[in-house]
Amino acid sequence: MSGRKPYAITLDVGSSLANHTGSWRDERAVYVDRMPPCNDACPAGENIQAWLYEAEEGGEGYERAWRRLVEDNPFPAIMGRVCYHPCEDACNRGQLDEAVGIHSVERFLGDEAIRQGWQLDAGAEPSGKRVLVVGAGPSGLSAAYHLTRLGHAVTIHEAGPMVGGMMRFGIPRYRLPRDVMEAEVERILALGVELELNRKVTNIAESMRAGGFDAAFLAVGAHIGRRAYVPAGEAERIVDAVSLLEGLEQGEKPLLGRRVAIYGGGNTAMDAARTARRLGARDAVVVYRRTRERMPAHEFEVEEAEEEGVMMRWLQTVKSFEDGRLVLERMELDEDGFPQPTGETEELEADSLVLALGQEADLSLIEDVPGIEVEHGVVQVGSNMMTGHEGVFAGGDMVPAERTVTVGVGHGKKAARHIDAWLRGGAYEHPPRPELATFETLNTWYYSDAPRAEQSQLEAARRTSGFEEVVAGLDEDNALFEARRCLSCGNCFSCDNCYGVCPDNAVIKLGAPGERYEIDLDYCKGCGICVEECPCGAIEMVPEEA
Amino acid sequence: MRFYQVGSHVVGNRLLDPEQRAVQARTDRSNAITCGHRACRGCGEALGARYVLDAAMRASEGKLIAANATGCLEVFSTPFPESSWQLPWIHSLFGNAPAVASGVAAAMRAKGREDVRVIGQGGDGGTVDIGFGCLSGMFERGDDVLYVCYDNEAYMNTGVQRSGATPPAARTANTKPIGKQPGNAFGQGKDVPRIALAHGIPYVATGTVAEPHDLERKVEAAMAMRGPRYIHVFVPCPLGWGSASADTIKLARLVKETGLFPVFEAVDGEIREVSKIRRRTPVEDYLKLQRRYAHLFGEHGHPEIVERLQAIADRNIHEYGLLDGDGEGEAW
Hints:
heterodimer, A: alpha/beta, FAD/NAD(P)-binding domain, 5-stranded parallel beta sheet, globular, B: 8-stranded mixed beta sheet
C-alpha cells in the first residue's frame, strides 16, 4: 500500500473496469453449433438450417440459400416435390405448433433458380482422373455432380433412352413435372458431365478398362418389377407397375380398362392406382394383404389417392384371376402382425391387374467381376460405398438402403467424397457430428406463434382428368413466411439476446448480423442467463477447470 | 408479410430494421453501468439499471444525471474509489434520493440547463419505505424528475430483510417460514405504482427485465415528457430469493405471465395500456423456482397459501384486464 494515497484509499482511483469479476466464475458460457434435427434426419446431408437462414432474409437471400443448398444436393426443385421429408418429422417446431414446411421452401428455391437461370459453380482444379458413372438416375447424377465439382472428369453410361431413372419411370408427372426435372439435370450436364444414353454396361470391369476410367460408381437402380404367381386365364391382362409407368413415360397408351385392381401397398401401388384413374379407369382398387397402418406407402400418398377416388381393400390377397374376376382371400393378422389366410374368399370384377410388389435390381453388369458380393439381390458396399472390387463403388436402390430419391442423392454425394479421396490416395473422414439440438435445448418463448403455410392442391375433379401437377408451390410471401418459421435449432441466428441480457456487459458483439459474439472472460461471472435465454440453444455452460 | 421469426421478443433480430431493435442490441449503447461492478451473479437490478439508463441516455443524447439512493445498486457500483457509472452520478443518503434528484433538477433550471435531464433511482427499500416521503413530495411539487424504482422485493444489501414491497408468504430474514402464517403476512405492504398513480403525475409505468423492448419504450415515453414521472421495474434477485442465477429473466417473465405483477402504462393518472398475458401460467411455476417460497411446497407445504397467492394473481388479471389479449398482436 502506498503512503502517497489519500486517507482511507486502498485502491487506485478509477473505473470498475479494473475489477476483473471473471475470477468469480466456476462455469463459463461457450458458443456452440449443435446439430439441428432436420439436418440430422436428411438422407442427402443437406444443411437445412443454414439455407433457411439465408432464405429468411428474402430478396438476394434466396440465391445465397439456393447456393448453400446445392452444395449438398443439386436437385432442390425435384426434392421439394418428391422427397418424403424426414426433416419435417424431426423438426423441433413440430412440438411447438407444426413442423416447418421445409420441402415447400426448398421447392420455392428450386423453382426460383430455374426461373432466374442460376447456374451451378464449376468446381476444383481438374484432377486428371476419369470416373465412370453407370445409370443416370438420382444417385448417378448426384455422384456425377459432386465428382465434377471435385475436379474429376465424369462420363455417365445410361442403358435407357432418357435421363432421370426412377425420377422419370417411378414418379408420375403429376408429382414431378418433366420440365422441372430436365432443367435440374441439364444444369449438371452443363458442368461438363458427359452423358451417353442407350449405352448398357454389361461388364463393369471391361467398360472401365476400355474407357480408361480410374474409378466407377454404379447406380443402376432397381427397376425390374417383382412378379408373383397368380393363376390366371390366358386372356387376363396382368402388368407390373414399373413397366406400366415406364411405358407411359415412353409414349405408350396402356389399355387397362374401366376396372383396374392394383396388388400391393407401397408408394408404387398408390402411383399406379392414381395413374390408372388418370388413364380413364372408373374403378381403381388397391388390394393389400395387411392393414392400412401397416402399409409401406406414405400417409399423404394414401390420402391423395383416396381423394382421387382410389378404393382400398385391406387384409386381402389375390388368389386367382379368371374371366374378368379376381378371387380375393380375406386375411387376418396373427399375434406377430403377419397376415394369415382365413379361407374366406370374395370376388372382384376387374379388366386388368397391376402388380406393385416391389422391384429388383438388374445386376448383370457385375456378374463376372471378382470380389463383388451380392446378398438378397443387392450389392454389398462398405461404409465408404466401395464394393468388394477395388475402385468400384455403388449406391442408390441397388445397395441395401431405403429406396427413395433422397437416399440415392445422398449416396451419390457420399460416394463422390470417398471416390475423390480414394483417387487421391487417401481416405475420406467425415467431420465429427455435433451434439443434437433437442427441443429441450431451446427457449421457445422467444419465437412468434405462426401456423404453417399450406400448399394448395389441385381439385380432385381436375386431378383425375390429366397429369397436371397436384400440389402447387408457395408464392414468395408464403415461402418467406415459412422460412422464417425456422427455429434455427442449435445455431446462432444473431438475435442479440445474449448481448442484451448479460448483467455484466460481458458479451461482445463482433459486428453485423452473422458475425456473432464472444464472451469477455475478464468480466463474465458465469451466471448462465445468456444460456437460458438463447432462443436456439447455441450457448452452453462448461465447468471451469479447478 | 408481417412475420419476423422472433418479432420483438428478442433484443435484436437481424430481420428487423435496426431502428426497430432494442437499444440493448446496439454496439454504441452507453453501458451506463459498465463491467466490473460487484453485483451478484445473475443480478436483475444491474440489468434493469442498464436497460433504463441506456435508453434514457439515448433519449437525452447523453445529457443525463442520476441521483441514487443507498442500496445494492449504490454499493455494488461504487466501492470507493471505483465507479461503474458512465454518467454523472450522485449518492447522498438512503432516504433522500428523490429529494436530491429534485435539487439537481432545480439547479439545472437555475443554470438555464433544462436540456440536462435528471433521473432518481433506488431499490424498493429506498423507494417504498425509507425514501417514500421524499418521493411523494417530489410528485406533489411537480419536479422535473424521472424516478425509477428497481424492485427486488426486500432489503437485499443488508441481508434480505422485509420491505414494504415484499410479497405475502415470502421468506426473508425477518419473516420466517414458521408457524401458521409462514413468511411475510398477507394484507400488508404498499403498491407504490398505484400510489404514484393516485398523485395524478404525468407518467407512471411498470415493467420487467424480461421485456427490454417494452421497458425501453416506456423510458423513452417518460423522457419525452416533463414533470414528475415514475417507472417501477421488477428485478429478480438470485441471492435474496434463492433462485438460480440463470433464472433471473425467466422469473421476470413468469411473474408477468402469472398475473402477479401487472405491467401497465398510465398517463395523467389514467391507465392507458396493459401488457397482456401471452401464455397464462399458474403461480406455482413461478414460486417453485425460488427458495423463499420453498415452505409452501413438499410434504409440509401449504397449498392453501399457494391458493391465496393464485387468488391475488387472478384478481390482478381481472382488475387490469390482463387476458383476452391476442398475445401475438405485437408480432411485428
